[in-house]
Specification:
disordered N terminus; 22 helices; disordered C terminus
Length: 652
């Protein structure tokens, strides 16, 4: 979703200021020793790499031609050797020593810089994931998995690349330009001006490129997230794609997303195709001009154009070597800018994710839930999904909902799809918070309770079971990691799962694949129930737990659910009304309000919406009359204790 469409992610990304500065201020402290070692090592390596051409030029003019005394910048003359042989070997050892020093300190700065970069990115990636896990369900309702994966993976890698390469290359470039400029000016300031005349143009071209390319990088990062989302969705739903014969449709969607990424990438590259050759051309012209002017100066023995003085052959050779070393790092400026812009865009996305506030927060001193009785109350609860911009709900999907469940009771929620049944119970787990009213457990508003302890005492079994790519035992033990094998087996037996587990190739140590793909739907559901059995919660939520299995499997699952719900406060969401006829109380929801309540017999006798739904499922009524809904609402208003039904709706 784009920023124009109101995505929280993009809204907060656009609010991030000075992202790379923030990266250093928040994550460099505590790791600066590695950065410092890397920077110092880089500077020493680069300075050492400049010595060979300088010493070579001095040796040519002093030892080979004898035109000049043997001197080196910043080195006292008293330290210089006297004889030609001593000067020759002194020059040779300096050249060898400079190469050794360059190699040694290049290794030091490489190790230290990588240590800094990877330590920072380890923390950034971990913090990003931790922040993502704390975000409200509203964020995940809106945000696509592929884009979040792009932030945690691709954007983090871009920052790592910047810290690992661009930062050190920037230092290398600065040292090289400054060091070369000082050496050239110390040898011949006039020719140095000729050599460095292209530098202002190079910087001007760089500034133009950075300003022009930045918005294009932002678009490219968004298109990467969109492509990742398409790929993740297509791979996750590959079974649906194959069974519906929609491979061509999915391929077309991937092609569209890939073409958008291609188009945005080309938008960046078109500017790069101007900038990079332009930088290389200016740097090359600097070398060519130096060769022409210096060559004429040495060849004719006279200063060309408006220059004055003399230029020795050794100095000219040093100029050529230095200019070539000046050209190479300048030609890499485009890569540095590319990595910088990538990192800046990625940093905005990472901090945009981190800055999204969570509405589901704990009070300063939350109450720890310990051995709750399981008394649950909904007191005039209203709920609507919050708007990204102002946090206010656009419309209510639950309105004035009140009911009470005593400890150990079973309460069922039934009604049409979209009536708000699942949303209602998600308020109990604090996946969302009500706009108005209270949800209480044992007399405490759930907003006053510790989130971790609240959710540890609520077991949730849904229609869509999620299993991790691991062993059977690991999936049953998830959330109760300390449980021993005996407890795992006991939970599996209670969930009617032990028999099929034992028949697997490695029993409880069998790997079940991503999302439990190697198991049937009924087997996956029974593992989910076993996991909840092991959790041993005081409050239980069963959300359409048997709706997607065959009759025989449903019987096994229902039997395990009966065991699971014994002596627990249990909430059952069901479309199949036969599974809830024994509930202590049944609430009938429509359009976010309770329109009927009572036990099965009472509701059948009342002959309202529940009775008609029961008649349809029992085969006594062929179809639900279109006009019945309105009539049911009107009759509900006449019955004491029932609320009016609003005209809004939500998705379960």
């Amino acid at each position: 979703m784009s920023a124009e469409e109101g995505s929280a992610f993009d809204v907060y990304r656009q609010r991030v200021e000075r992202p790379l500065y923030r990266l250093f201020t928040e994550y460099a402290p505590g790791r600066l020793q590695w950065l410092t070692i890397g920077m110092v090592g880089n500077v020493i390596a680069r300075i050492a790499s400049l010595l060979p051409p300088l010493v070579l030029g001095v040796a040519i003019d002093s030892v080979l031609t004898g035109d000049q005394p043997y001197t080196l910048p910043l080195v006292p003359n008293s330290w210089m050797p006297v004889t030609d042989a001593e000067q020759f070997w002194f020059s040779a050892w300096i050249i060898v020593g400079s190469f050794v020093t360059t190699s040694a300190f290049t290794y030091i700065y490489g190790v230290a810089a990588n240590n800094f970069a990877h330590r920072v990115m380890h923390t950034v990636r971990t913090d990003s994931f931790e922040t993502m896990q704390r975000l409200d369900m509203t964020f995940f309702d809106d945000k696509q998995t592929g884009e979040v994966m792009s932030v945690l993976n691709n954007d983090a890698n871009n920052l790592e690349n910047f810290l690992d390469n661009a930062l050190q290359n920037s230092v290398r470039l600065s040292v090289m330009i400054l060091g070369i400029a000082l050496i050239l000016f110390s040898l011949n300031w006039q020719l140095a001006l000729v050599t460095l005349v292209a530098v202002p143009a190079l910087f001007g071209l760089t500034i133009w490129f950075m300003r022009a390319v930045e918005p294009r990088y932002v678009k490219r990062r968004a298109s990467v997230g969109n492509l990742n989302t398409r790929l993740e969705n297509a791979l996750s739903g590959v079974e649906l794609v194959k069974t519906t014969g929609t491979e061509a449709y999915e391929t077309e969607r991937i092609e569209d997303a890939s073409w958008r990424y291609f188009r945005d990438t080309m938008g960046v590259l078109r500017l790069s195709y101007i900038y990079r050759p332009g930088m290389e051309l200016l740097a090359g012209l600097s070398f060519a001009v130096t060769f022409i002017v210096g060559g004429l100066w040495v060849f004719t023995g006279e200063a060309p154009f408006m220059l004055t003085g003399t230029l020795q052959a050794g100095e000219f050779i040093t100029f050529l070597f230095m200019t070539q070393r000046f050209v190479t790092p300048l030609s890499q400026v485009s890569n540095i800018v590319d990595q910088y812009e990538n990192a800046k865009a990625s940093c905005e996305r990472i901090f945009g994710l981190m800055d999204i506030p969570s509405q589901i927060t704990e009070v300063e001193d939350p109450i720890e839930v310990e051995d709750p009785a399981g008394h649950v109350e909904y007191d005039h609860v209203d709920f609507g999904y919050a708007d990204v911009q102002d946090g206010e709900p656009e419309s209510l999907v639950l309105e004035d909902v009140s009911f009470e469940a005593e400890p150990g009771e079973t309460l069922a929620l039934v009604g049409p799809t979209g009536a708000g049944k699942s949303t209602l119970l998600k308020l109990l787990m604090r996946l969302y918070d009500p706009v108005d009213g209270e949800v209480r457990v044992d007399g405490h508003d759930v907003r006053e309770l510790s989130l971790e302890s609240l959710r540890q005492h609520i077991g949730y079994v849904s229609q869509t079971t999620f299993l991790f790519d691991g062993t059977v035992a690991e999936n049953i033990r998830y959330g109760r990691f300390e449980a021993d094998r005996e407890a795992v087996v006991k939970a599996a037996k209670a969930a009617e799962a032990h028999e099929f587990i034992e028949a697997l190739p490695k029993g409880y140590d069998t790997r079940i694949g991503e999302r439990g793909v190697k198991l049937s739907g009924g087997q996956q559901q029974r593992l989910s129930i076993a996991r909840t059995m092991l959790q041993d919660p005081e409050i239980l939520i069963l959300d359409e737990a048997t709706s997607a299995v065959d009759t025989e499997t449903e019987m096994l699952i229902q039997r395990s659910l009966d065991r699971l719900s014994e002596n627990r406060t249990t909430f059952v969401i069901a479309h199949r009304l036969s599974t809830v006829r024994e509930a202590d109380e049944i609430l009938v929801l429509e359009d976010g309000q309770i329109v009927e309540r009572g036990d099965h017999d009472e509701l059948i006798e009342y002959d309202g919406l529940y009775a008609k739904l029961w008649g349809v499922q029992a085969g006594e009524i062929d179809d639900l009359p279109e006009e019945f809904v309105q009539r049911a609402r009107e009759r509900a208003r006449e019955r004491p204790g029932l609320s009016d039904a609003p005209d809004s709706s939500d998705d379960d």
